[in-house]
Specification:
The structure is a homodimer of 440-residue chains. Chain A has 440 residues and is mainly alpha-helical. Chain A has one domain. Chain A contains 16 helices and two strands. The longest helix of chain A is centred in the first third of the chain and has 34 residues. In chain A, 52% of the residues are buried. Chains A and B meet through helix 12, helix 13, helix 14, helix 15 and helix 16 of A and helix 12, helix 13, helix 14, helix 15 and helix 16 of B. Bound molecules: potassium ion (K) (2 copies). One potassium ion binds next to loops of chain A.
Chain lengths: 440, 440
């Protein structure tokens, strides 16, 4: 029996793992008992990529096209993808933490005492336990709405599916109109949004909030994330409330309480969640443009969310202000942000813009029936792994579906592997410790 | 008689000068003998802003709505705006030159020996003489086409108007379909494009090319501009040729020779010129998206052109490559580009994106009849002071026209005044020397 060393770098491992589950899932969804009617290989691939990257864009109706088995495959991929990304992102923070919140690494090391492989496993274990507790608790809350509606069995199942989908910011729903049927339901609106905000703010932020005894002790990253999330959500709420107030297809038909719930939900969902309780196909174009910005920004680092990340957006905004004020340093909360971070934030955003632009350029050549705005919306949604759509996903051409598949994959794994590469202290690849494996 | 000191900073002086001529022009265009039919104050303001910022977007048909007097007003504003911008930009390079082509300042000082006010005046004199010689020479070339067509008087006048409009990258034409009537004319295509490429590459580049005896002597800025201009034009030519080849509304109907001329012209015009020999309202959406990118990039620094500038685009591209390759330095032509320049290029681009995005957001609220793509096209055209349009300028709402006016103004003066502010060695404002003025 020979000892072997896996020579894949962590980003390579991540990519290979993702591809493995995406292809495995595709195979499973092609089984005769996975779908109610046969779906194409491409549609199966699209679905599993969307699930594994926790995007939520759907070419087939999740609740209608799949059997229970098919739905469980999708749900499993969401859970694997979401937790996988989170674990990997936390790993980056921990092992090679060079991101904005310089304290996280130390914090996590103290909190979880992982300086060895055992530590890493322990950390991931904590993450898993935390996720399952949150998801389990949310199932109970969601069941109070859905068990009375669908009965025990179906009601619990629907609750589990949506709890997993929401916490992992996947945006997949068993209802063909997402959560539009629950536009005014406090329990659904609040539980689902609580889940995806918690999942989207980043595990390190949660650990920091848990561990820190005073506000002063909080890391810069945590402060930016908490205050930034609050501010951007309040601003988005007000904008959507005002912009859609008189739209007969969205808010105008609703009661004031429903208007508030709907504005709140559509304010928080674009930064990666991907559920919707209003129809994006009927929104004002100004709202859609603003939503595109929110989708591009995305959620937090080391979270189930996507996009360029809120901290990146904050750094860019601050650097623009510094530029206009002719200041050389960027300061926030009595801390200076390192030049290297600013450069990274700007370069990452530019690369993201380029990715979106390139995808859009090719889609313009293949999708003649879709409006330009709906294509921009779709591409940014795929890049930010958001899952919102103006309704064109199902009618994309084959090439169009391939483009969106690539964008979802690049949007989810690109920034992470980039961040990983850049946070390496030197050019050496990390070698995994030797360990016996069974080779027969 | 008291001595006075003008206390305006150079950027303030530039803004005030521009506003003065825009408002003066508006007054002149409202005179009864300036127009064939009365035009509104807003349309007069739009026209003079477009002329003074050498944009070329038109709410009225320049050749039809104005009398000879009105046309001369427009032509004069183009000349004043174009030369004014060029002089000011050259001044920045010379007095406080901190841009990419670090050699320019020295070069210009050596070449023109301007260390005093006299030197500045001398430099601007050279610039003016050069411009008039080029424009005069072009008039002769254009006249070989237009004098046979329109007779001596009209033919010469049309040649003068288009020569001034082209050299200053203004894009105003006396023909309601711009240069679509001359899609296959070698003399018109080549003369007009030669004018706007020369005007758009930047005066310092021309001085450098004139003064340098060997290629090695050329500044980095000159090398980037010359090679960059060549490459981007070749790429744009090939893309448009391929993308539009089968479009029955553009290239498909033309002979091969005309196809080549048309592809060439539409390849070079978006980077600020603004003339067109094909109808942008009928182009493929992929071409339009690519054209939007070209318009955003724009021409050279210290030129009559706009946009974020070709050098900025090159620096951004190189920094993205460096980022992906995990390199800390950006090198080109055996030179390293300073971190501060990279930061500036990235910040300036982000601010530009923000400006375009904000304008678009408000236009989405006011222009319900225009497609999203046509609005993006219009805003980027205004920002880059290009003047191309998919045909919606005339039917913009009053608020829409105001938004485009602001974007043209900000697009032309914003980057320059920013560049000026940022190239100041310290916070002190430059004080103009005291000089007697007549106060009665
Ligand atoms: K999502
Ligand atoms: K122009």
């Amino acid at each position: 029996m020979k000892q072997k060393v896996i020579r894949l770098s962590p980003p390579q491992l991540l990519v290979v793992t993702f591809l493995f589950f995406i292809i495995l899932g595709m195979g499973l969804l092609k089984l005769p008992f996975a779908t109610t009617e046969q779906i194409s290989w491409l549609d199966a691939l699209f679905t599993t990529t969307s699930a594994m990257t926790v995007t939520g864009l759907a070419v087939v109706d999740t609740g209608g096209a799949f059997t229970l088995f098919g739905e469980v495959v999708v749900m499993s991929l969401i859970q694997i993808g979401g937790l996988g990304i989170m674990s990997f992102a936390v790993l980056i923070f921990m092992m090679l933490g060079k991101k904005i919140g310089f304290k996280e690494r130390l914090l996590l090391q103290q909190a979880l005492n992982q300086t060895s492989v055992g530590g890493v496993i322990k950390l991931v274990k904590y993450l898993f336990i935390f996720s399952f507790i949150v998801e389990g608790f949310a199932v109970l809350l969601l069941a109070t709405e859905w068990v009375p509606e669908f009965g025990w069995k179906r009601g619990l199942y629907v609750s589990i599916f949506h709890s997993i989908s929401a916490f992992n910011n996947a945006g997949f729903s068993l209802f063909s109109d997402s959560l539009m049927g629950y536009v005014g339901s406090p329990i659904i609106n609040l539980t689902i949004s609580f889940l995806f905000i918690l999942g989207g703010i980043g595990f390190t932020v949660l650990v920091d909030l848990w561990k820190s005894k005073t506000i002063r002790q909080l890391s810069l990253h945590t402060k930016i994330m908490v205050i930034g999330t609050f501010l951007i959500n309040v601003i988005a709420f007000m904008m959507i409330f005002v912009l859609e107030f008189n739209n007969p297809n969205t808010l105008a038909q609703l009661s004031l309480s429903d208007k508030i719930f709907a504005s709140y939900f559509q304010a928080v969902t674009p930064r990666t969640a991907g559920f919707n309780s209003l129809d994006y196909g009927n929104m004002e174009r100004s709202t859609l443009l603003f939503t595109i910005l929110l989708m591009f920004i995305g959620a937090g680092s080391a979270s189930t969310g996507g996009g360029i990340k809120l901290t990146t957006f904050v750094v860019i905004s601050l650097s623009m202000i510094a530029f206009l004020k002719e200041k050389k340093e960027i300061r926030i909360f009595r801390r200076t942000i390192d030049q290297a971070h600013i450069f990274k934030a700007l370069a990452l955003s530019m690369i993201s813009v380029l990715l979106v632009f390139t995808a859009l350029f090719f889609l313009e050549m293949t999708e003649h029936d879709a409006s330009f705005l709906s294509l921009v919306f779709e591409v940014v949604s795929a890049f930010g792994t958001v899952g919102l759509s103006m309704g064109i996903t199902g009618s994309l051409s084959a090439i169009g579906k391939w483009i969106i598949i690539v964008v979802m994959f690049a949007g989810k794994l690109g920034p992470l592997t980039l961040a990983f590469s850049l946070s390496r202290p030197d050019k050496e690849k990390i070698r995994y410790p030797k360990e016996d494996i069974l080779t027969g």
